Amino acid sequence: MSSSEDGFLDPNASDDEVMAASGDSDFEDTPRLRTRQKTNPKAAKSSKFTHLTHNPVTGKRKRAQVVASPIPPRQEQGERRGMFDDDDEENNGDEYDSDDEGPRQITGSEFLTKLLAWKTRPVKDLGGLELKADHTARPLWIDNHGRITLERFSPIAEQAQDFLVAIAEPVSRPTFIHEYRVNEYSLYAAMSVGLETKDIVEVLSRLSKTPLPQSLIRDIHRWTAAYGKVKLVLKRNRYFLESSVPEMIQRLLADSQIRACRITQVQGDDTSNLVHGVESAPKPTASGLLIPGTTEARRANALATGQNVEDAPAHETVDDVLGAVIGLDRADEMDEDDQVQSFEIDGDRMEKVKRQCQEIGLPVLEEYDFRADNINQNLEIDLKPMTVIRSYQETSLSKMFGNGRARSGIIVLPCGAGKTLVGITAACTIKKSVLVLCTSAVSAQQWKQAFIQFTNIQDKQISIFTSQSADMFSGADSGAAGIVISVYSMVAFTGKRSHSSETFMNFLKSREWGLLLLDEVHVAPATAFRKCVESLRTHAKLGLTATLVREDDRISDLNYIIGPKLYEANWMDLAQKGHIANVQCAEVWCPMTPEFYAEYLLAKSRARIVMQAMNPNKFQACQFLINYHERRGDKIIVFSDNVYSLMQYAQKLGKAAIHGGTDERERMRILARFQHDPNMNTIFLSKVGDTSIDLPEATCLIQISSHYGSRRQEAQRLGRILRAKRRNDEGFNAFFYSLVSKDTSEMYYSTKRQGFLVDQGYAFKIITELHGIDLLPDLVFKTQKDQLELLGSVLNETEKVNIEMEDEEDAYDFIDNAAGKQRFGGGIKPANRMTGSMQNLAGGSMMTYQENSINMNRRIKRDDRAAAKSGKGARHEIFRKDKRPRQD
Ligand SMILES: Nc1ncnc2c1ncn2[C@@H]1O[C@H](COP(=O)(O)OP(=O)(O)OP(=O)(O)O)[C@@H](O)[C@H]1O
């Protein structure tokens, strides 16, 4: 690794040198960064490759070469049981997670439940299963609970992976070993793309090193038996459950909860037919649908218009393995000429019905035969001739439209991989009215711009429905098709609306939507938003996300709210192909100064967050990294969830910052300068920048404060640099640093946050020392005096945080007191809390100092509020406690 003369990292160093670290070399030897490596422990490494004797998938024989499995089978080592016993997946620690709240104590009964679950957890058991003679040629280990381990170094790993993605949930995909899990939901998804039970069992058997456990075969049969037998169909704004198997209808009606949601026949209405109303199943149109933007579609178009047909080979949409064994068109044959029976259900209780169907083992299939829909008007929308979708975008869409109809479900692509274009292409394929729901008004605008950029749609055919805008698209009144883009909170809102908003909402509810696009679909199960889907009449639903994770247990609800996961791309594969940037990730450990640490130990949890972020050593590390990466020509985003720290850092280091309170014009100005001005290479962002900020110039990201253990936030932040413009430059890497105050709760949360990315194959290096940092000219907070002054102002800030907290606690005090009165027949005064003397603790002779009883603090704050309310004006600034003169 090269170094510059002034002793710190050479700004001309190559990416590999920067993270010399990253070399898989011994980090202790690197002169600049002292690191350790933190990767997925499940990753195994091999320098040898297994060569096939024959292809277990196709059965074709290949020339046999060396047969040497990098992981010696345990059987050969005399260990046949408990091969994977060392990891305990059942307890993934999520009880400490929360999306929006901090850590939570688990109760005694929860603990006992967890303990019981742990004790009775299924053990990966390959015991009793003989290894096949040619096991080294087969890439999978499969246990009796459907857990599958793929040897990624196998020559047929690619094909096996494509098959596994179709039938199982990826659990973890580091470089050499991938882990998947087959369960009922993953099999519903497999069935929905046309796979059949016997194909699944057969291919798994071929790929497995051991015979498939009988219990797993039974489970696969059980889970797949009823799939597709019950359909949910929208007809003239009303929902029907239908099936061509009479027993299924009987089973549905036998369930009291489903029966309660049934709408019985309305007089004179022949469409709300019940069980006895028998009608012909709509004949599925022959597949042969061309998805716009694909090579095939462009060839067909060229032929039709007499242009030169390009020589470019068609994208491989369906893997050979799948194509060979499943024949996707089989789904078309399903139900043909069958007689279906149906009954109507209450659309407002659709979620309940779908959940119940799932629970009784009859998951509903939602498919939209849009080409046969003559009721809803068509939308004239097509991709512009210049728009070409990428191979993985095409593959994901082929899972949705594989049988010529639109299946509802979820597509998971990494951040920056182009989910918007996938949604837009789906809209161009269905060509009916589209409703897009996203998470913010900024996102809504971006969706509109993307529609206009990629398609021939006119501005007037798109409406944005947010708190600021509720203009109808042209022709909406006369039933014309169009596009509406809105935000979840707008549609979910249940309070009193303005007149225009009420009218718009009624319009949304009154018509059928061909396609509902749900951006960031992982938010849909949130209590506030789940009614959104139910309140709208939609034929097909497509959820898009990069991070199909929630820190609560509701992610699986998406199976019935939206549909199964149709496709999930592999982040590392897309990075290798240059669709997203390669990222080097590092966690930088910053020891706290003794004074900060002493105060930290005494502080309350919220105050601790500020102290962790403001640790002077972290400040210096941030300055060092900014300096270093600016000299390399990188553009840097620094993230801080804590706005106080964000502003302190930005001011001290002389950089621009954007947070929730920054006004729109200022925001746009800063972002534009960051993009185009070579003198503005670093910006500070609060969590407003976590999503929906498209800055392809950014190549380096530094995180100084984050939201507890949110795996999603970590991935979304990483997503800001995955779209780096320079990603295809040779050897280019983007950089992601997470600065962590050592020996604080940040260490724990940091590890949790990385979980998702580690499962995607990212390796986090741990940097314990930034060499040369002391030589940085103008290093901030270098002297103890500066550090103590910083501590003083931080304590002032944390004092405010404490007061806010105590106001909250007042409410609890009140409850406690009331309960105390009841219990003890009299008021029990809660104990007074006193702020400690920080001067003594921190040797803070240079600091602002005050010592107030907490009651005094409360009183000051209440007085302020009362004065402000009464209009008499708050006390003069000079008397505000944090502005009081120093008492040296
Ligand atoms: N097929 C394509 N051709 C050209 N550009 C594309 C294509 N697909 C995506 N892009 C571009 O890639 C960038 C990222 O796309 P997009 O914003 O849709 O990503 P995303 O997956 O929604 O990311 P995030 O989850 O972070 O919001 C955009 O600038 C988009 O125009």
TrEMBL record:
It is found in: Nucleus. Residues 85-100 have a biased composition (Acidic residues). The keyword Translocase does not apply. Residues 47-56 have a biased composition (Polar residues). Belongs to the helicase family. RAD25/XPB subfamily. Residues 874-888 have a biased composition (Basic and acidic residues). It comes from Filobasidium floriforme. Residues 1-106, 863-888 are annotated as: Disordered. Pfam families: ERCC3_RAD25_C, Helicase_C_3, ResIII. Residues 400-566 form the Helicase ATP-binding domain. InterPro entries: ATP-dep_DNA_Helicase, ERCC3_RAD25_C, Helicase/UvrB_N, Helicase_ATP-bd, Helicase_C-like, P-loop_NTPase, XPB/Ssl2, XPB/Ssl2_N. One of its GO terms (cellular component) is transcription preinitiation complex. Residues 620-770 form the Helicase C-terminal domain. Keywords: ATP-binding, DNA damage, DNA repair, DNA-binding, Helicase, Hydrolase, Isomerase, Nucleotide-binding, Nucleus. One of its GO terms (biological process) is nucleotide-excision repair. Its EC number is 5.6.2.4. It catalyses: Couples ATP hydrolysis with the unwinding of duplex DNA by translocating in the 3'-5' direction; ATP + H2O = ADP + phosphate + H(+). It is an enzyme of class 5 (isomerase). GO terms for molecular function: 3'-5' DNA helicase activity; ATP binding; DNA binding; hydrolase activity. This is DNA 3'-5' helicase. Coiled coil: none annotated. NCBIfam families: rad25.
